[in-house]
DNA sequence: CGGGAATGGTCGGTTTCCCGACACTTGTCC
DNA sequence: GGACAAGTGTCGGGAAACCGACCATTCCCG
């Protein structure tokens, strides 16, 4: 997993460089700037289930995912849980609190064992301000996030369970965040229920109805999307599908 | 209403200056930059109900609200409607499509008669890039939007009707977007239902239950919040309240 | 390889909420 | 000032989803 040894700064820096360059937001930085960024980035690994950041904390760090997936979620006093986003390799998270200085608005936990880079806010904020191009990149990133989140609100208001579930499966399939090839999504039904805001039972019922139609195939801890067009049609019409 | 006459550039520019300076995002600009911005901004008025921008359009304009309120919404094929945001005086909207170049993700309609400034993307984008401070302001703006929208997703997933309704009323009261003093919200029950994603009937039923407890008072086309603490408690616990 | 945790599958009773319909009030525009 | 639109109040049937309670299976870790 962690091939760079923190005891060897030279090699560490070299690996960091090649990894950070794959993150779209840093890809176009000048070599000097990228090098500077590498010096700021600290390498870490976290075990599945571990808390990376908690709601309400000061946002002192920006995170970049090297491997694994991170779950952004929030929970209510009565134990219910809402999954807001899943962050995969090549993506960053925790940028909002870093950029605006307000407390974290959600929890971040390791959905699988993860390899991360952590960048301190005190290093990063001046760095962004010194790189106008990077600021524009962040504006684009935030715009994308906003589009995604607004669409979620839209779907949750306009669509019923089948529509929402279809939309969620489509989103996961298209982004390939959990894709291990040919439409296999490594996600539990419990997690899906927390993404769309319905109970696990309702999700299970709907999924098996679709499995009977060969739209999907259910495996343990995974869902295989077989007929993506059927799901797309259902998601777009927003109706029916029981 | 419209005190600046477009036939008189001098006076127009003077008024624009004082108005644009009230928008937090432009407030800290250098006088020269602000002056430049005024030259870009075109003044317009739109009548209640008129479409300002439509979903799918290219985002060629940034809008700043001078007076009135604008409704950001999206509708499904079967006629259902979702209100995503309400924009009041001193706020801007339409910035996402301008900043990232993608099509508009929602409709914008005049909720009341409105007075707006319109700025062309071709003028504005180079302007932002030439003003590093402004880029940071936009980052903060987008972060705020993202926090608000994420919270909406959270609420819609975690809370039931009473909780969501209470949260919506609290939000509207605290932002004072529709406030005409002492907690009076100028909003119809139909509109609230489209904000929280429930039917008007359900909203009406819940509101009258609260009116019976003197938590709110219902007027024609308006809601007066009487006991804000009761609503806050309900919104935070997320439970009960029938 | 064995035990426990995680995940999936299943079931009715109950609640919530939608749906369609309608009467009444208020406001607005000609 | 009168017609019409917009907004509110109300009702009951029926569908959708929750809830709590299970057991079966699979996986993972010691």
TrEMBL record, chains A, B:
Transmembrane segments: none
Keyword Transcription: yes
Cyclic nucleotide-binding domain ranges (all copies): 25-145
Keyword Transcription: yes
Listed PROSITE patterns: CNMP_BINDING_2, CNMP_BINDING_3, HTH_CRP_2
Residues covered by the HTH crp-type domain: 159-229
Pfam hit, one: cNMP_binding
Alphabetically ordered keywords of this record: DNA-binding, Transcription, Transcription regulation
Signal peptide: none
SMART domains recorded: cNMP, HTH_CRP
Taxonomy, superkingdom: Bacteria
Name listed for the protein in its UniProt record: Catabolite gene activator protein
Species of provenance: Bradyrhizobium iriomotense
